[in-house]
Backbone:
C-alpha cells in the first residue's frame, strides 16, 4: 500500500479540469495570433518594422518574468496566483481585441505576457502539489502534457477559423470565456495543501537580474533574426544576458531566500529535463512556423485548411501522452520514454524534409506530423511530471517556472536560429539557380522549399541532441518510487510527497 505524507484532496480531479483549461489558453495564445497577424496588421496599419513586436512583446514579458511569477506563486499561494493570472490575462486579451492602434495592441500583448508568467507556473505547481500518488500523478500529467503539447496546434486551427470566418479580434476575445470558466472553477474547487507556501522574503536583486538577463537573451535572439548574428546590437544583448545571468547565479548563492534556489537546478534529473525540453522547443517552434508558411504560401492552403492539417498531429500527441506516457511512466524510467519519444519525433521530421512543390499531404506531411505528435506526446508527459517530482513543496512554483522558461527561451532561439538558416539557404539556392531558371516565380517557391527543408534537417539534429541529453542526464527510476539523484538532500522531508513501495 502506498505511503503518502498528506491526505488526498477529494476535489483534485475537478481541479485538474480548470488547471488544464488555463494551460490550454496560455499555450494556444502563443500560436493563435500568428495566423491572425496579417489581418491585424492591415486593419491597424502596423508597419512591417513593428509587426514582429506583436509576437516579441509577449515573448519578452512572458519569458523574462516566468521565474518571478513562479516565486510569487510560492509566496502568495498557488491558487491566488492562478486566479489573479487568469483575471489579468482575460483583461489584457479584452484590451488586445479592442485595440485601435499599434501601441494599444503591443501593450495588450505585453500585459498578456506578464499575467501568463504568473499563471503558467502556478498551474503546473498546483498539479505537482495536488497529485502525489504515482498512478494518479501519471494520469494527471498525461492530460496536462497532452494539452501543453497540443495547444499550439489548437491555436493554429482556431486562428484560422476566426480569421477566415469572423475577425482577427476574436483571437484575443476567445481567451475571456476560457479564463472566466477556469477562474470560477478554481475558486470553487482548488484547495492547496497546508504548509506548501514559501513565506520567505522576496529576493529583489534576484528578480531584477533574472528578469533583465532573460529579457536580454530572448530579445537578443529576436534581433539576431532581423539584424544578423554578428550585428553590434545582437552581440551586445547576448553579452548583457551572460553578465546578468552570471551575476544572478552569484547572488542566488549568497542570499538567504533566493528567487531560484540552486538546489532546483543542481538536481541532475530536473536539469536534464529543462535542457532536453528547451532543445525540443527549439526544433518544434521553428517547424510549426515553416510548415504553416509551406502549406499557406507554397501549397495555397486557406488558414482553416492549414489549421485542420495539424489535427492528426494533435490526435497522436494526445495518444502518446495519455496512452503511452501515462501508462508506462510508473513502469519505465523517464529517460526510456523521453529519449525514444524525441527520436520518434525526429523520424517524423525527417519525412518532412522531403517536401517539394507538389508533395502529397497524405503520403509525406500526414505521416510526418503523426510520428512527431506521437513522439512528442510520449516524451513530454514524463518530462513535465519529472520536472516537479520530489521537489520541495515550497519550491514547486519556481521549479514549474523553469519548465516554462526552458520552453519559452527554446522557442525564441528556435524561431530566430532556424529562420536564419532557412533564409540563408533560400538565398543561396536562388542565386545558384537564377541563370538556369525559366520561371522566376517557380524558382522563388523552389528556393523557399529548399530553405525550409534545410532548416528542418537542423531541427532533426537538435531533436536528436535532446534525446541524447534525456538518456544521459536523466537517471530517475520509475516515478512511482523515489527520485534517483535528488539534489534536495536533507530537505527531502519537505518535498512534494512521493510514493514508497
Residues:
Amino acid at each position: 500500500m502506498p505511503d503518502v505524507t498528506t491526505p488526498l484532496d477529494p476535489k483534485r480531479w475537478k481541479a485538474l479540469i480548470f488547471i488544464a483549461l488555463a494551460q490550454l489558453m496560455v499555450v494556444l495564445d502563443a500560436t493563435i495570433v500568428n495566423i491572425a497577424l496579417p489581418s491585424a496588421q492591415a486593419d491597424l496599419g502596423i508597419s512591417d518594422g513593428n509587426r514582429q513586436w506583436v509576437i516579441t512583446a509577449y515573448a519578452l514579458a512572458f519569458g523574462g518574468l516566468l521565474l518571478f511569477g513562479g516565486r510569487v506563486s510560492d509566496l502568495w499561494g498557488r491558487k491566488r496566483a492562478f486566479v489573479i493570472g487568469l483575471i489579468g490575462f482575460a483583461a489584457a486579451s479584452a484590451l488586445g481585441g479592442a485595440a485601435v492602434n499599434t501601441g494599444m495592441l503591443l501593450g495588450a500583448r505585453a500585459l498578456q505576457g506578464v499575467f501568463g508568467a504568473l499563471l503558467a507556473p502556478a498551474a503546473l505547481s498546483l498539479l505537482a502539489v495536488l497529485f502525489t500518488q504515482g498512478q494518479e500523478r501519471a494520469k494527471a500529467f498525461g492530460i496536462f502534457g497532452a494539452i501543453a503539447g497540443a495547444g499550439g496546434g489548437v491555436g493554429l486551427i482556431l486562428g484560422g477559423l476566426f480569421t477566415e470566418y469572423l475577425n482577427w479580434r476574436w483571437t484575443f476575445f476567445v481567451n475571456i470565456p476560457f479564463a472566466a470558466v477556469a477562474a470560477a472553477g478554481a475558486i470553487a474547487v482548488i484547495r492547496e495543501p497546508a504548509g506548501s507556501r514559501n513565506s520567505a522574503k522576496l529576493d529583489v536583486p534576484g528578480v531584477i537580474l533574472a528578469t533583465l538577463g532573460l529579457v536580454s537573451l530572448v530579445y537578443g535572439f529576436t534581433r539576431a533574426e532581423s539584424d544578423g548574428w554578428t550585428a553590434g546590437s545582437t552581440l551586445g544583448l547576448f553579452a548583457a544576458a551572460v553578465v546578468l545571468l552570471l551575476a544572478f547565479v552569484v547572488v542566488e548563492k549568497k542570499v538567504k531566500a533566493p528567487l531560484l534556489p540552486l538546489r532546483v537546478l543542481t538536481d541532475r534529473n530536473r536539469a536534464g529535463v529543462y535542457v532536453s525540453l528547451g532543445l525540443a522547443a527549439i526544433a518544434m517552434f521553428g517547424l510549426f512556423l515553416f510548415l504553416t508558411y509551406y502549406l499557406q504560401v507554397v501549397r495555397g492552403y486557406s488558414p482553416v485548411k492549414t489549421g485542420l492539417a495539424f489535427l492528426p498531429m494533435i490526435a497522436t500527441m494526445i495518444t502518446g501522452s495519455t496512452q503511452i506516457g501515462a501508462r508506462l511512466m510508473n513502469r519505465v524510467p523517464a529517460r526510456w520514454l523521453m529519449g525514444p519519444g524525441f527520436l520518434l519525433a525526429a523520424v517524423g521530421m525527417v519525412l518532412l524534409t522531403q517536401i517539394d512543390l507538389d508533395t502529397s499531404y497524405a503520403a509525406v506531411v500526414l505521416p510526418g506530423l503523426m510520428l512527431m505528435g506521437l513522439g512528442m506526446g510520449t516524451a513530454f508527459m514524463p518530462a513535465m511530471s519529472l520536472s516537479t517530482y520530489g521537489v520541495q513543496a515550497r519550491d514547486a512554483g519556481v521549479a514549474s517556472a523553469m519548465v516554462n522558461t526552458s520552453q519559452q527561451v527554446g522557442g525564441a532561439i528556435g524561431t530566430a536560429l532556424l529562420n536564419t538558416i532557412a533564409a540563408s539557404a533560400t538565398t543561396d539556392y536562388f542565386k545558384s539557380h537564377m541563370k538556369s531558371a525559366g520561371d522566376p516565380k517557380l524558382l522563388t517557391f523552389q528556393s523557399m522549399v529548399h530553405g525550409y527543408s534545410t532548416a528542418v534537417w537542423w531541427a532533426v539534429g537538435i531533436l536528436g541532441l535532446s534525446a541524447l541529453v534525456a538518456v544521459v542526464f536523466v537517471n530517475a527510476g520509475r516515478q512511482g518510487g523515489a527520485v534517483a539523484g535528488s539534489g534536495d538532500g536533507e530537505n527531502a522531508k519537505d518535498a512534494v510527497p512521493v510514493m514508497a513501495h
